[in-house]
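Researcher: Let's continue the batch. This sequence belongs to Homoserine kinase, and it's 339 residues. Same format as the previous ones, please.
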Amino acid sequence: MQALQGRPSTRYNGPLGYQGENTMAVFTPLDDAQVASFLERFDAGRLIACEGVASGTENSTFFVTTDRRELVLTLFEQGEHDELPFFVDLLDYLDEYRLPVPGPLHDRRGVALQSLAGKPALLFPRLPGKHPESPNLAQCRALGDTLGRMHKVGQHFDGHRPNPRDLNWLLASHHQVYAYLTPADQALMGDEIDSYQSAFDDPDRLPTGAIHGDLFRDNTLFDGDRLGGIIDFYNGCSGELLFDLAIVVNDWASDAHGHLEPARHDALLGAYLQRRPLSDAERRLWPMMLRMTALRYWLSRLLVVYVDPPAHELTPHDPERFRRILKARIAAGALPLPA
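Model: Same format as before. Here are the structure tokens for Homoserine kinase:
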């Protein structure tokens, strides 16, 4: 990456703490002596500079420069700390397969998860690149290829964390936003969830494995057309691979009106299918999964706006984007899958 000074800002919040729809902050300040002492646990070099990264909601994040490399230090302020070992194991596993993820640094005793200033802490390599606002076809192919590789190896990952945003969550949560919806949107949401229950009545029908769970374009880093990294595994879990793929296609291949763009769609899916062909059940349920994941983000954004706003001053993402995507998928269905 470029030098710390003058680097264009990104929404990088450390590989776990960045949540796609939020940014980052420093809630626990650290001085140079604390960071220098922390680095002595690792074979990572001597501290040159430490820069707190401002503006956000979840965790405290620092860009750390040593005489040997550039790193990201994250202190976990909120969330389920007992789930952190799952994320560490998942990143270690994917890093072993040379996927472009920020495998956490382990200390001289082989331990990754640390404590600093009374908070759980992880140290990561800083990955190259920036978020693509409007991905080109080469970037879509790169992402599809890497996601296919990740899903293929992720089927053999033995860690387990239930999907926190699956159909069960939709069933339990959607009534919380009904008071803020028009009668037409209440009916739309309720009818859709009824349809999903019928379509996905057999939970063992679809291939499962380790998934990212939130792979929006701003959770990737590109150096030109090269995928430099996939970040934010805080929603990583064990789930249906098709669920993960549908999240990606809805974000990466939708236009401003919610319609699928054939060129981006085919570039991404064509590369993915070269790595991991879909099963017959996945092909049959693909249109419905695109709809379900669109509603997943429509609902989660409505909850942030109306029910559970962020603790700090942030502008929530507009739920309307995924309402448009959902309605477009209902009206037009899915595009044909590449051969």
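Researcher: Any comment?
Model: The first strand starts at residue 47 and ends at 52.
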